[in-house]
Amino acid sequence: MTEPDLPHDRIDPPASLSQGAPAAVLAALPGARVVGGAVRDLLAGRPVHDVDVAVALAPEEASRLLREAGIKVFETGLAHGTVTAVLDHQPVEVTSLRRDLVTDGRHAQVAWSTDWREDAARRDFTFNAMSMDAGGRLWDYFDGRADLAGGRVRFVGDPATRMAEDYLRLLRFFRFHARYGRGAPDPAALAAIRDAVPGLARLSAERVWMELKRLLEAPDPGGALALMREAGVLPAILPEAGEGAALSRLLADPQAPVEPLLRLAALLAPGTETEALARRLRFSSAEAERLRQLADPKLRPPPELEGAALRRWLAGTPPGLPADLAWIAEASDGVDRSALRGRVAATPRPVFPLQGRDALAAGIPAGPGVGQALARVRQWWLQEGCTPDAQACRIMLERG
Fold first, then answer.
1. What is the pTM for the complete model shown?
2. In the chain, where are the structural domains located?
3. Rounded distance between C-alpha atoms, residue 191 and residue 34, angstroms
4. Distance CA 87, CA 73 (A)
5. Low-confidence ranges of the chain (pLDDT < 50)
6. What's the CATH fold of domain 1-147?
7. 151-237: which CATH topology?
């Protein structure tokens, strides 16, 4: 469908859109366009990752045409008009144009449409409502390109209406502000967000954590988090958040890792019960354990740690954690640990050289005595600065 009253800019599609699976999908579906984040990031000069395509066809018809073109089709979200096309192991989501029939703040009942503007009008932000065809012709119904260039995160239409359709958009506003926003946020959006905060209770914990994690992955989420606090959003989704000084110190260092759990640990108030937080937000077991360790002040190293004491600390700290513990310790107390981080990076993590089979080979009967004997030798190994090798540890094991 063509809108003669809409001026079309033309842009050069990158190889990620003009070749491979995206190009094959666009060629197989008459009138199909790339939509959403791929268009936004192309215009922003950022790498294009996931490519989503929309088409003015019912999903069954889109699936048929894709299969006829030799493209595999998986019906991953058929109720919402979405299928996943896969060519050469590269997935492309293909969604039929839609209009909302009923929304409840979390889900929507939809009907298929052939009206591109109607489909764009149901999207969240103006710069996410743009679309582009295979030739690089751009459709921009709501001035998204200008908003993107000006660093404005602006809802399509009335902000309160957009959020009442899906309250996750409230959190998405801050995530996109962290990545694309510059200057003061849209005042109409902030006013509507303050009124919409109670609607956050309708979201699943998994969706809240997904958005919070994506926000914490932004290069600098500090400003967006401050806005969330001011608008009452942060206390609603993360009442455990502290005053933010530790996170500010962490974000101020350009060498600090962009790691969401590390940043979350820095954001939490001292003494936070992380197990309860992890249960509420439905963390994976690995996420819950990592946050517990990062938030535990007893595991954090003092800045002067070196030599045998450093090796002992490394031996008792899970792999992948020592550097982050040094970062969170510095963020918490403000004491520089750059030299310590250098020593941590330069020191191999000592690993106790004996296992259960060594105890059995030494004649220790299978059972609790094996663990007790190994624990005794490991304690000696730690006292010796983690330097005795396997042979020395076996001799100590045999001595009993």
1. 0.88
2. 1-147, 151-237, 243-351, 356-399
3. 32
4. 9
5. 1-2, 4-5
6. Beta Polymerase; domain 2 (3.30.460)
7. cca-adding enzyme, domain 2 (1.10.3090)
